[in-house]
Amino acid sequence: MSVLTIRQRQVLSLAAHGYTNDQIGRQLGVAGATINRHLVEVYATLGARDRANAVALAIYSGDISLAELARIAHASQQREAAA
């Protein structure tokens, strides 16, 4: 059972790919400060110290999958190749 909301999982997946809060915000159409708030809630929910720890805990708990991270990486590579 997922402990994170859909939006929190989405934000954390993008953070796992290395996007900054502002970059995530632009992709999702919200302010970077909103992304920061989502991440603070994720850290508290998972008991994480930082982004890397939150990603590891989310993978361990099943909140995000390696397949999802691979999909994001692939989409990012395609966008970069098209640019």
UniProtKB/TrEMBL annotation:
Residue span(s) of domain HTH luxR-type: 1-62
Keywords: DNA-binding, Transcription, Transcription regulation
CDD domains: LuxR_C_like
Database matches in SMART domains: HTH_LUXR
Gene3D superfamilies named among the record's database cross-references: Winged helix-like DNA-binding domain superfamily/Winged helix DNA-binding domain
Entry keyword Zinc: no
Protein name as catalogued: Helix-turn-helix transcriptional regulator
Originating species: Streptomyces tricolor
